[in-house]
């Protein structure tokens, strides 16, 4: 049986997949590049060769997750350009908890200047995209994003999304969303 050699770009994609899992589980400060390397099946020096530093790898991971949110919204808008369609599309992201938790870790690590700059830019880009795709007013976009953030936090707590842990308050809070 012969093994197919992957290109550096393909390996980089595998490392990013592993980084989503690892950073989602432990956050920026709590994740080590050797753990990401182990999950990706490569050496830690190879991870550094591909991404430079842990911070650069974290930033690439935040960009990947933000790209995924934007792609999801664009695909929804291709079908129908309203906030309800974008909101419905976000439900599929709720099934991928680690993606959303990476965003939360990015927000939490925003005191780090390079991370904060990138996270603020990407969140602003999502806000602008929502307005551009739907024609939503500032107020409508703010309410849409606030609801999305609530769902993101609740998915991180595992009270929303697939197989939620049932809590009376969470059921009540999510009732009309």
TrEMBL record:
Domain HTH tetR-type as annotated: residue spans: 9-69
UniProt KW keywords: DNA-binding
Pfam families: TetR_N
Keyword Endoplasmic reticulum (UniProt): no
PROSITE patterns: HTH_TETR_2
InterPro entries listed in its UniProt record: Homeodomain-like_sf, HTH-type_TetR-like_transc_reg, HTH_TetR
GO molecular function, one term: transcription cis-regulatory region binding
Superkingdom of source: Bacteria
DNA-binding region: 32-51
SUPFAM superfamilies cross-referenced by the UniProt entry: Homeodomain-like
Name recorded for this polypeptide: Transcriptional regulator, TetR family
Species of the source: Kribbella flavida (strain DSM 17836 / JCM 10339 / NBRC 14399)
